[in-house]
């Protein structure tokens, strides 16, 4: 039997019925990823499997380093084929790592390749995939079509040009390609020189001289409005923990004035939290005003390896789970917005599974009788987006909230080959529910349970996010 077969991960008859009848054929909304919008606008044709699969995938880079692969064969000057062969030699060592599953699902779904990837099979697979990627049906846009993507949301800085999203909207592309507002650099005063340069760039895009804290907020609002005009309906924020220093706008102005125009200014204790709190409150208010969803990604320690950060840069596979305190600051931030009647729809993601019950209970505190599932406990993220982590998140949400209102999975990926992560999630969900059905923990009402599955796979996200094309 093939390793990736029709009933992969489905251990019971009930699980198989739920997946094949209710989940398998649902389209997808990938509402958080890091795909380059230029590739979609230009309908990029990838030259080889390295370009589409390895070039930006820090999950694979991390595994290769753990396997003793030299950096030259990961992010260095080796040829694309050499890097692919090094990855293929690593794959057999990833047994029980989700990469082993993802690798073979992706080879099967994109290329119909039903062999295990290893040193022996790699040369032929390189040739097979190179030939297939040259075909028109493997262009970036056609991949989105064949994977049944209805809409996707990229991750974009407020200072970014939105020309690629505008092109996708203007040329009749039927799949929604929307920007997500990621304003993390607005309060990144730890590197004052870089922050000043970013303020200049933001000002040019917004047509505002960012020479004061008030003009910073004005520029962010103008860019938020520009994102809205091309269909953007989500913001995203990557934080250690929520900012909750409510010293006020005057204090934020003093922090801004100290750093603006002074590339050597040193942040004092509390400066980041003071400025960050006011910026995040402003973004929350803008989201509420325009009917957006706010995503809070909380908890990682980034760029742990200073040597690799200097040599290669950020986001190269040297991040880990943090053990920050989350509950009090998250509660204070959400409560501050709710107290102003300015809390938008919000999705909470934790990278530390120890926080599952904190986040699961926090989401239920701010329901207000308007939007079902208004504050979501988001899908397993980053280090917990594998089968076990997904099960933990689904079980916590089921115990503490309403699984039936869950908006489901996303890829959080830089690769066009990552869309089968939705399939992986759906199989995991159906296996859990199927086990409950066969154990008598759920009624044997397939229309009811299957209807919930369909909603989690697609319909809930469609209703919740309000994207124009979905």
Topology:
Blueprint lengths: L12 H11 L4 E3 L6 H5 L7 H6 L3 H9 L13 H11 L7 H14 L10 H12 L6 H7 L2 E8 L6 H8 L5 E6 L10 H15 L6 H17 L4 E6 L9 H11 L11 H20 L2 E6 L1 E2 L4 H6 L8 E2 L5 H13 L5 E6 L5 H8 L11 E3 L9 H14 L19 H19 L7 H20 L5
Parallel strand pairs: 1-2, 2-3, 3-4, 4-5, 5-8, 8-9
Antiparallel strand pairs: 6-7
Kindly summarize this structure in a few lines.
The chain has helices at residues 13-23, 37-41, 49-54, 58-66, 80-90, 98-111, 122-133, 140-146, 163-170, 192-206, 213-229, 249-259, 271-290, 306-311, 327-339, 356-363, 387-400, 420-438, 446-465, and strands spanning 28-30, 149-156, 176-181, 234-239, 293-298, 300-301, 320-321, 345-350, 375-377. It is of the alpha/beta class.
Describe the structure.
This protein is an alpha/beta fold and 470 residues long. Helices cover 48% and strands 9% of the residues. The protein contains 19 helices and 9 strands. The protein has a 7-stranded parallel beta sheet, with helices on both faces. A two-stranded antiparallel ribbon has the order 6-7. Strand 2, helix 9 and strand 3 form a beta-alpha-beta unit. Helix 1 packs across helix 19 (446-465), helix 12 packs across helix 13 and helix 17 (387-400) packs across helix 18. The longest helix is centred in the middle third of the chain and has 20 residues, at 271-290. The chain is globular, with a radius of gyration of 22 Å. The two termini are 36 Å apart. The mean pLDDT is 97.
């Amino acid at each position: 039997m093939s390793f990736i077969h029709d009933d992969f991960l489905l251990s019971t008859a009930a699980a198989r019925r739920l997946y094949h009848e209710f989940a398998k054929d649902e389209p997808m909304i990938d509402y958080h990823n890091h795909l380059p919008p230029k590739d979609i606008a230009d309908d990029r044709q990838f030259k080889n499997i390295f370009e589409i699969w390895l070039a930006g995938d820090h999950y694979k880079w991390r595994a290769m380093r753990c396997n003793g692969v030299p950096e030259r064969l990961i992010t260095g000057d080796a040829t694309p084929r050499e890097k692919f062969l090094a990855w293929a030699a690593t794959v057999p060592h990833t047994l029980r790592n989700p990469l082993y599953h993802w690798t073979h699902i992706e080879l099967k779904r994109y290329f119909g390749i039903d062999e295990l990837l290893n040193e022996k099979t790699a040369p032929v697979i390189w040739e097979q995939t190179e030939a297939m990627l040259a075909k028109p049906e493997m262009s970036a846009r056609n991949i989105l079509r064949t994977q049944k993507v209805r809409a996707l949301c990229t991750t974009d800085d407020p200072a970014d040009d939105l020309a690629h999203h505008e092109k996708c909207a203007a040329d009749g592309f039927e799949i929604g390609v929307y920007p997500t507002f990621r304003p993390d650099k607005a309060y990144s005063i730890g590197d004052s020189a870089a922050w000043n340069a970013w303020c200049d760039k933001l000002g040019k895009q917004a047509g505002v001289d960012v020479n004061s804290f008030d003009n910073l907020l004005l520029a962010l609002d103008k860019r938020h409005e520009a994102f809205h005009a091309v269909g953007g309906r989500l913001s995203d924020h990557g934080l250690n923990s929520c900012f909750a220093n409510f010293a006020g706008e005057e204090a934020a102005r003093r922090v801004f004035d100290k750093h603006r125009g002074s590339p050597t200014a040193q942040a004092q204790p509390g400066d980041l939290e003071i400025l960050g709190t006011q910026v995040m409150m402003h973004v929350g208010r803008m989201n509420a005003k325009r009917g957006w969803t706010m995503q809070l990604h909380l908890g990682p320690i980034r760029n742990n390896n200073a040597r690799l950060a200097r040599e290669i840069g950020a986001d190269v596979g040297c991040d880990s789970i943090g053990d920050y305190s989350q509950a009090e600051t998250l509660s204070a931030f959400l409560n501050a917005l709710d107290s102003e009647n300015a809390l938008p729809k919000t999705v909470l993601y934790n990278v530390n599974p120890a926080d599952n019950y904190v986040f699961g209970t926090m989401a239920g505190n701010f329901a207000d009788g308007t939007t079902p599932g208004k504050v979501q406990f988001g899908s397993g993220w980053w280090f917990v987006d594998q089968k076990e982590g997904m099960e933990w998140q689904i079980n916590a949400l089921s115990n503490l909230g309403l699984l039936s209102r869950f908006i489901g999975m996303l890829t959080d990926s830089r690769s066009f080959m990552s869309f089968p992560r939705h399939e992986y999630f759906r199989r995991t969900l159906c296996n859990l529910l199927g086990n409950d059905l066969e154990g008598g923990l759920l009624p044997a009402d397939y229309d009811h349970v299957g209807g919930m599955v369909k909603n989690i796979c697609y319909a809930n996200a469609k209703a919740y996010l309000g994207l124009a094309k979905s």
